[in-house]
Amino acid sequence: MSQKFFLYARKSTDVEDKQVLSIEAQLDELRDYAKREAIEISAEYVEKQSAKIPGRPIFNKMLDEIEKLGGSILAWHPDRLARNSVDGGRVIYLLDTEKLATLKFPTFWCDSTSQGKFMLNMAFGQSKYYVDSLSENTKRGMRQKVRRGEYPGLTPVGYINDSRTKTIAVDKKSAPVILKAFEMYSEGNQTLDTIGMFLAQNNLFAKNGKKIHRTRATFILSNPFYYGHFRFNKEVYEGKHEPIVDKRLWDKVQEVMKERGRPRHKMKNEPQAYCGLLSCATCGMMITGEYKVKTQLNGTQHFYTYYRCTKKRRDMKCPEPCIRQESLDEQISSLLQKVSMPQDWADYLNMRLEKDKTESAQSVQIFVSENEKKIQDIVVKLQRLLDGYLDQDIEKEIYRSEKSKLLSEKKSLETEISRSEGKQKLWLEPMQKWINKAQNMEKIALDTDLFCKKVCAKEIFGSNLLLQNKLVRASAPEFLNPPAKQMQTAWASLCDAHSFVSSQQKSRVLEPMDRIELSTLALRKRCSTN
Ligand SMILES: [Zn+2]
What we know:
- The chain folds into 3 domains: 5-146, Rossmann fold, CATH 3.40.50; 159-265, Hect, E3 ligase catalytic domain fold; 343-528, no CATH class.
- The protein has 17 helices and 14 strands.
- It has helices at residues 23-37, 57-69, 78-81, 85-96, 114-147, 175-186, 192-201, 214-221, 247-265, 325-338, 343-390, 396-446, 450-461, 477-480, 490-503, 506-509, 514-528, and strands spanning 5-10, 41-47, 71-75, 100-104, 159-162, 167-170, 229-232, 235-238, 279-280, 287-295, 301-309, 323-324, 465-468, 471-474.
- Strands 2-1-3-4 form a 4-stranded parallel β-sheet, sandwiched between helices.
- A hairpin with a 5-residue loop joins β10 (287-295) and β11.
- The longest helix has 51 residues, at 396-446.
- Residues 280, 282-283, 285, 309, 311, 318, 320 line the site of zinc ion.
């Protein structure tokens, strides 16, 4: 029976085909074999592609031909036809449907009998197994390498794979350029684009020969390989290779990258110093801060921080405008200045405090010694009571009830003593601290540390600061227009004293001071009521 014979030869550059005859050798052997077996070859198909996965065009073309018109195949070994289950299955199905008449292999026997097909199936299965176990072995080998601290892949720029010693060596040409790139970027005034440009100037290009792009520059600058570790399967391992970059420099670069990356992407969400301090007077929502970059046509960039109402109310559209950080800061600083304490006031208060301390210490001393005397009396009474009871002058019942009364009295007196001693600490110490803080407020108000100002403003005004039409005010009325009524907090009284000063002759107020006296009275009142 004469039939069309197709010759198929294949070899890939992949590992699984390493031991296989070259295509030329396969062709020579197959042609010889055909001659010996009196086989007439009607077409030769040659392919340089792996058979690990389906989709070889020349192989598919040959099978399509066979499917249409029938034919037979001559190949060196079944593994030339298929190393995957799809292609192997297709060949066997063509045999089953008798489209494929015969398969001939110089190295392998099979025919169209059930036994032949079984053998063929085995051969395909073996080729697939070979590929599978090979990739498993490769993976295992890689893992072993990783464990030994050897990076299993191609080294990044700056290093070379020394094929002779199978180690990774520092590339003397490119390594200093990489180091310089790290140093330049760590200073914080370079962009990733300029780093890419610098690398190009020093003959370091991307694989396609083009200038190193910003993403590639990011990859280089954030690769732990350069300080001696390496990433493999998303995990970092300690490497054996020589570092190019010091770990501290590498860390610095990561910081800069994080810092510089922020404005471009996340700046909007970055909380600003005064966020969460004020609320909108019109709709009651919080005031939030936003960082904005304005780029001019000539490339100059301007950076602004704005504060605005979050406008989260659904039932109304808040019309409040936004305010520049400079303007907001100015107003908050002036509010803080209003509750700052001038040196002479502080001196006076401290003097009063010392006096109060002494007076209170004296009165405490008197109180304590009075009570101690009472306790002493009780102790004497208790002794007499016991004597009377022992002499049988006093009934047991009376003795017991009298004793219990005296003991209870003694306990109360003892408690009074320890309480009065603790009491003066309770209001003297917070008062002392408060004076210091108030004295410092001027300095804080004039400083540029916005966060510190926010903390102070929060303590003084609580959540009472409102923003309306770009103006900051405190919602508690006593801060606005201190009436001649009792002041609620020490800060309020201080603010009150300030406004009194501005409306009166300074000299009068700073004299023995009925007004300051009043406010200190209020202060003392606040501090002494726990
Ligand atoms: Zn609002």
